[in-house]
Design goal:
Two copies of one chain form a homodimer. Chain A is an alpha+beta fold. The first copy, chain A, contains ten helices and 21 strands. In chain A, the strands form four sheets. In chain A, strands 12-13-15-14-18-19-20-21 form an eight-stranded mixed beta sheet, with helices on both faces. In chain A, strands 4, 5, 8, 9, 10 and 11 form a six-stranded antiparallel beta sheet that branches.
Chain lengths: 410, 410
């Protein structure tokens, strides 16, 4: 099966190479002044790297490694097959070393800081910076009583937070996915830009957004969290030379993994309830009180929302059900679904919830429409959204935030 | 001369290798969970990269390329000679390709996003995150009437900006150096951390800091600025494949360049006066009004300061003399000096100025002590600071900010 996929991908790459349209332009995600990588109207990525003594350079994007070719000056150039609209993580492979492309800006995902590229999208207007009233993305540190350490987060404050100095605002707590961190929503997610544009257009009410790291919260002495909760305690293998190779994982298909299609059974629900881990405690005991103390916040359940993507959506699922009177609005982006069965005895959750939003990409089947329909039948104000022609990637989540934000605090 | 230097460096590297102390620890600037690069108590950097098919991998730091060695698993490891305390840009070279180290976080400097490493310093306490009242570093966009485009900047707001919602604050406009951008002061400069610690210790009064990009401001149709001002207009060479190799410039000595030692003559003064370029107009016409409109600012000359490092110091020199009644406090970090000759006819500047601060690293001789002495003799409240054992690099500028901030708005 995997071999078949690789063969198909190779064939697609060959076919695409034969039909390359020469209208490549530098990507919007490039470093200032850098010409490469480029994207053409077919949404193919062309990368370039000077590596005079290398014998092999590859462009590693979307789970496929594309051979690049060297010219007489030692400059390697090569193209990928067409990519989906929106943001993708990628890297270059130079003689077996997986490294960031020196031409791109860097983003945290796939458990590393590395290259990312934005493929122009028909609907990119909603996440394009415009001359509208501007909020800000604020980098902060705060002390956590749970981890007993200083932690790092980001706060979106809408323009009106500054212009209307006595007004108080609702808050959305918004979480990233597996292998990502607290920078994801503001950088590749374009949260601040999406919100400023929505608020300026009158489509969303102004609210604060708080973004934290949902993976690195550890109680003192606790080991790093795996996908299903804290790992067994004990010493980790020591990082001796030669034992821990650096760089992104060789299976370079970031963004392609996530909850399985149609997940929503009892086992999934149980897993979701445990997904919060120490982060759940940090959120409830440290983050929410900190946000409500430091900012002008309407500090009640009706003005508190939580959402997340993929793992962050599963955390949202678990944390909002575990704390049923804390949040009135719940958003699960590519993070599976909540089933009516789960809510049978969840009286407090049902009484508190004002909107339950579930979304996914059109290329991943998570059954969000069906789930919303079933939840509506038991009286939940459920909404669903399927992002056209996108997979388990950031374009799905940018669009999900755009949709979800319009439902909040109204 | 250059050959002699390279020979000396190579000899130093050989000597150092013979005496390596095996107490290497992961650098504080590493990506989460990454073991390499490491630093030992001799301040040597040990890098590591998996590159099974490569024939040459080098660690490129401080202007010297150090050969790394491959083990049986295809993992390359190697050390640099001892480095100065503080922050340095660096990169790896894989078969002739200059690429970021996948183990480090990335910083903008030397005209590229790339690897950086912090060497532990005896005085690092002043830029270490502590559990004290926390301000924030706010990422913003604003519209510039001069460039007719949206621009990008950062605002430091002290903790009291949030906790004391009617108080107004003074503002320092703080600029980066050549090849850097608006992210430099908050990321590698650690501005927010330094200020929070200073304010908590009662050593500085709370003030706002605004940080912009002093290099990319262009009037419509204008070409990118060079070191001495706008370049002649006309089409730039097109970026055809093979013509514009990507990656940091091969002479990898970022941070080593800057104004020449002891610069302060009439020619230097004239150059400094032209350094602002379109940025000067953006600062005066767009940024200062934007900051004073959007934030609670004491909007008068006595509560307005400007400072910068290297090129940003030269811009500060020029802009504060060109706009003599706009700023009361002036800081020039590794950006040369102001001479008494320049102030002979500068009545407004002399009447307005409350502090004129000049600093540099101990390993660069910019004559700041002598310049301050001469300025004091003509009645200027001049201060100088020489950062012990540092060159034209960020440790000098972190310390300069720490010193300068204590003199402001008192």
């Amino acid at each position: 099966m995997k071999q078949l996929f690789l063969m198909a991908a190779a064939f697609a790459a060959m076919t695409a190479t034969a039909q390359v349209t020469e209208d490549f332009k530098p990507a919007s995600t490039n470093q200032e002044g850098k010409q490469y990588p480029m994207v053409n109207s077919q949404r193919m990525v062309r990368a370039q790297l000077k590596a005079p003594e290398a014998t092999s350079v590859k462009l590693d994007i979307g789970g496929v490694k594309y051979d690049m070719k060297k010219d007489a000056e030692g400059v390697w150039t090569g193209e990928s097959a067409p990519q989906d609209e929106g943001f993708h993580y990628y890297q270059l492979e130079v003689d077996g070393a997986s490294v960031p492309d020196p031409g791109s800006k860097y983003y945290y995902g796939a458990s590393r800081w590395g290259s990312g590229i934005d493929i122009p999208a028909a609907d990119e207007d909603f996440y394009t910076v415009k001359n509208v009233p501007q909020g800000s993305i604020n980098e902060i540190y705060y002390y956590s009583t749970v981890t007993q350490s200083m932690r790092h987060g980001y706060v979106y404050l809408p323009a009106e937070y500054y212009s209307n100095p006595t007004k108080k605002f609702p808050v959305l707590y918004l979480q990233h996915g597996m292998g990502e961190n607290e920078t994801g929503w503001s950088a590749q997610g374009k949260t601040g830009i999406i919100m400023d544009n929505l608020i300026a257009a009158g489509k969303a009410v102004p609210f604060i957004i708080y973004m934290d790291n949902g993976l690195n919260a550890r109680r003192p002495g606790e080991q790093p969290m795996g996908f299903g909760g804290p790992r067994p305690q004990g010493p980790r293998p020591q990082g001796a030379p030669g034992q821990r190779p650096q760089g992104p994982r060789p299976q370079g298909a970031p963004g392609q993994r996530g909850p399985r299609p149609g997940m929503g059974g009892a086992g999934f629900a149980q897993m979701a309830r445990r997904m919060g881990g120490a982060f759940e405690e940090v959120l409830i005991k440290d983050i929410i009180p900190m946000v409500e103390k430091n900012y002008r916040v309407i500090a009640d359940t009706e003005h508190r929302a939580m959402a997340g993507l993929s793992m962050g959506g599963m955390q949202t699922h678990g944390i909002t059900l575990n704390n049923p009177t804390t949040f009135s609005y719940v958003g699960i982006f590519s993070g599976g679904t909540i089933s009516p069965d789960e809510l049978t005895d969840a009286k407090d959750f049902k009484a508190t919830n004002k909107v339950l939003f579930m979304s996914c990409g059109g290329k991943e089947n998570m059954g969000v429409d069906e789930a919303a329909k079933a939840l509506k039948e038991i009286g939940i104000n459920a909404h669903s959204y399927v992002s056209p022609e996108t997979a388990h990637e950031w374009q799905t989540w940018r669009r999900s935030l755009y949709q979800f934000a319009q439902l909040l605090f109204k």
